[in-house]
Amino acid sequence: MNCLRSPLAGLALTVGDRRVGAIYKDVAEPLATLVFGHGAGGDMHHRTMKAIAEAFSKVGIATLRFNFPFKEDGHARVDSKAVSEATVKAAVEFAAANYQTALFLGGHSFGGRMASHAMVDYELDVDGMILCSFPLHPRGKPSIARADHLASIGCPLLFLSGTRDALAEPDLLGSVVKAARAKLQWLETADHGYGILKRTRQRKDDVFDEMASHARDFVVSVTL
């Protein structure tokens, strides 16, 4: 795996016999670098990905976000699990070789789910994981089948999930987090895509700043 400059994406990761775009959001004195994959409905340029990267940078967390091949090719159907995991692995290896910081892995929705599988199947060497809006089950079909592998992850885990996320029923996600010996922070009134209820939200800060605050506390606790 190597990485070349791309005029559109900034960076291009080599995954097998092809390349995918990547973007590194640097900070002056990073606490850590977070390798961060996108959800099934967006790509690394999606406004949610940009908002997360910007908020995290304000608290000292650099991010390397990247495209999965299906989005690089403009397709709607997600890649196979094997292809997705190989892409995550390539991104982690590049970050480890090029950024001299503590290294964390995560993603939004599909990106986080594939990152968690790559952690188990490739035994990736990272300090911790940050999983945002982990898609525990399809909408309207509560289940914990997608979480069977999480207890096998040996590094510290942080889940950031909205209290109105239709893809993570609270009691089920709570039981999964407990079984995985992980940490869970609820994002007040947020749904799966971080839409909030302004009238009933008690917190005054932006939801992405809320996420970043929790992420910073987690990174600090892991790297102390």
Description:
The protein has 224 residues and is an alpha/beta fold. Helices cover 33% and strands 24% of the residues. It contains 6 helices and 9 strands, in the order E-E-E-E-H-E-H-H-E-H-E-E-H-E-H. The chain has a 9-stranded mixed β-sheet, sandwiched between helices.
CATH superfamily: Alpha/Beta hydrolase fold, catalytic domain
What profile does the largest beta sheet have? 9 strands, mixed
Rg over CA atoms, rounded to whole Å, is 16 Å
At the fold tier of CATH, the topology name is Rossmann fold
Give unreliable regions as ranges.
1-9
- Helix segment tally: 6
- Structural class computed from helices and strand pairing: alpha/beta
Distance between the termini: 31 Å
Question: Which helices and strands occur, and which strands form pairs?
Answer:
Elements lengths: L2 E4 L3 E6 L2 E8 L6 E6 L9 H12 L2 E6 L2 H4 L8 H18 L3 E7 L1 H13 L5 E5 L24 E6 L7 H10 L3 E5 L19 H17 L1
Helix pairs in contact: 1-6, 3-4
Relevant terms:
single chain; 224 residues; 6 helices; alpha/beta; Rossmann fold
Summarize this entry quickly:
This protein is α/β, with parallel strands linked by helices. The protein is 33% helix and 24% strand. Strands 1-2-3-5-4-6-7-8-9 form a nine-stranded mixed β-sheet, with helices on both faces.
